[in-house]
Amino acid sequence: MNAPAIVDSHCHLDFETFEEERDEVIARARRAGVCRMVTISTRITTFPKIRAIAEQYDDVFCSVGVHPHQAGEEPEVSVEELVALAAHPKVVGIGESGLDYFYDSAPRDAQRRSFTTHIRAAQETGLPLIVHARDADDDTADLLEAEYARKPYTGVLHCFSSGRRLAERALDIGFYVSLSGIITFKNAEDIRSTVRDVPLDRLLVETDSPYLAPVPKRGKRNEPAYVAHTHAALAELRGVSVEEMASLTTRNFFRLFSRVSVPADLDLNGAA
Questions:
Q1: Total structural domains in the chain?
Q2: For residues 43 and 97, is the Cβ–Cβ distance under 8 A?
Q3: What range defines the domain where residue 119 resides?
Q4: What is the DSSP letter of 151?
Q5: pLDDT mean values, one per 10 residues, the chain (272 residues)
Q6: How crowded is residue 14: how many other Cβ atoms within 10 Å of its Cβ?
Q7: Torsion over CA of 184, 187, 188 and 192, rounded to 10 degrees?
């Protein structure tokens, strides 16, 4: 590989904006050095499409779950249903689920019920929980900790844009922190300050595409290839080379998302 092998741990390849050129989007990601992509479920009703995309491409995997925005309108899914859907070999995570009090698109009690269901599916399957948290730091951390005390599990704070204390509490129960293009935005100094203190072995990178394109692509539709810009910004922020950060975040990804196959030409032990 010419470019360092990196991973987009969170994208939405099923969204309509990618419909006409999904092959080209994935090809551009490969040319940018992206060796694995996880396309994330936001609705249980569209999960068959998400799974089909993961089945179509060797380097694309998926999750299963319901976004907190949709927790009030999607059919309420049970732990058993999530566990059954997660048995597919291309399903590598549970979510994205969590609490979003910024938009409040779904009633908060529905969000909390859904979040608890997803946590328990992660506990049952051993797959990582993909957490969406916005303006709900305390409630998110309280629920993560209470459920961890009941039965340990692992996961990631995706597209981290929360306060330092949520990061600390999640890290204390073994979670990872995933960074999006937000860390390249001028007004994100509080987030960068927190990221400087996250242990290097708990960092991941993602696009959350089609949203949040990093500088210098800000304002454009985001896509997995652009994770390279976020990755370079993270390397600079932490004072390490792009190559070393690629080794770190890629190893972290395969440690957390342990069901994802490692490319045959990628030596996780020899890098960094």
A1: 1
A2: no
A3: 6-256
A4: S
A5: 85 98 98 98 98 98 98 97 98 98 96 98 98 98 98 98 98 98 97 98 98 97 98 98 96 98 86 42
A6: 23
A7: 80
